[in-house]
Predict the structure.
Amino acid sequence: MFKVTPNPPETDAIPNSDPASPYCALDPTKLNDTAERALDHYLKPHVSPQRTPSTMFVVAPNTDTESLLAHACESMASASIMLSDFAGLLEKPYRNTLLGIQQVVMLGELAVNRALDNLEPLPRN
């Protein structure tokens, strides 16, 4: 008697394989390589290339510490005054927020001033 439906494919090449499985025809080497790449992506630390800072706004590298601290102190004092003045123009909830920021800037200014006090003055030529 003649059979109308074709025979299923033979599975002798791959032992214990399920003919309905989409993975039985995949190359085990490719699967291993893919698994290795996936594990490397999630488990190996990513080493980023050395970051090069922008040179648009650069502080001269030979500037002495005392000058840098003095400039930082003056900048923070100016920012503190600007924040305080601006806070006077705002309503209560925003004023309180701005005054909190002003206080943080003022505390930074005090810390920079203390660092300036602790520095040994450089001999002037």
User: Anything to note?
Assistant: DSSP finds three helices and no strands in the chain. Helices lie at 28-43, 65-87, 92-118. Residues 19 and 106 are 74 Å apart (CA to CA). The two ends are 114 Å apart (CA to CA).
